Amino acid sequence: MYLALKEIRHEKLRYTLITAMIVLISYLIFILSGLANGLASENTQAITSWHTKTVLLNRDANVNLSQSTITKKQLAATNLTKSQAIVGQAAIVVKSSNREKESAQFIGLDKSQYIAKNLVASSGRRFRKQHEVIVDQQFKSEGYKIGDKIKFNSASNQYTIVGFTKNAKLNIAPIVYGQIAVWKKLRPFPGGQVAASAIISKTAHFTAGVKGLKRYSSHYFISKLPGYSAQNTTFAFMIGFLMVISLVVIAVFLYILTIQALPTYAVLRAQGIPGAKLVNTIISQSLVLMIIGIIGGALLTAVTASLIPFGVPLSFNLVMLSLITLGLMVMGIVGAALPARKIAKIDPVSVIGG
């Protein structure tokens, strides 16, 4: 470590350039991981807040909540307990005078069931009547207030915002919670025999045993949300690619510096310093550079997170960040392997003798 630090102090400019590259790569990886986590969270906030373990949908809905319909006859045949609740989902456009239109998801609930009962209002209260709704916190940030009157799509009915709630997003859109009867008005079906879009259960082994309905685990249901898997795969690919770049950067820079310092290393070997000690020097240099670079990247990320405007889906997961940091450290060690191998095989006679 002593030799490593001495070498870094001696070649300040070169090692500063390497560290700057690692800072930028780390910063980019941390921001991308934050965006990936934030977007994934905004896709599934509502599903998570419902403590979903099992989802029952129409068998022909292709695991798509918006395509699923459960009839009154099917619902009557199920044996729902306190751990199950029906939801009705519809994409809507929220309109209010003097405000921009807002795309959202309407979730209709039975107020006697657990999802409606467990709704926590960050301000205001839960809905009680048919013309009352509680909406995601995003509406508040966009100027909506408790008591505001809103309309959905082209309908003339007005609804009153009676509260705001946190973590109420589905497919990145903010949710408007209201009664299931309102959802039926928003999605009218011939005959009026539709009761809900899905049955949500917070127990893993719930099964209705009703013809036409199919049970899915929450993990599988989330993986089938529109765009969810493609989005996560894209971010994972980008993060992995950046980690490979960090490996190449550290390997190339250290290799060039090692080649330039070969006569010095040959003299040290001729003086009796073991090759293992010189190899440890290279690996120590790599670790020091990675630690400084990762800390620099983390500080830049923290500054960015504090300045970024509300609405940008940036959310950090400490476990994920820890794994990324560990992965970068491993990349640094692997990147140091090539120059370390060069030093391990150095022949003082051939190098010094020219």
From TrEMBL:
The keyword Transmembrane applies. Keywords: Cell membrane, Membrane, Transmembrane, Transmembrane helix, Transport. Belongs to the ABC-4 integral membrane protein family. HrtB subfamily. The keyword Transmembrane applies. This is Putative hemin transport system permease protein HrtB. GO terms for cellular component: plasma membrane. Part of the ABC transporter complex hrt involved in hemin import. Responsible for the translocation of the substrate across the membrane. It holds the Pfam family FtsX. The lineage of its organism: Bacteria, Bacillati, Bacillota, Bacilli, Lactobacillales. It is found in: Cell membrane. It is a multi-pass membrane protein. It comes from Oenococcus kitaharae DSM 17330. InterPro entries: ABC-4/HrtB_transporter, ABC3_permease_C.
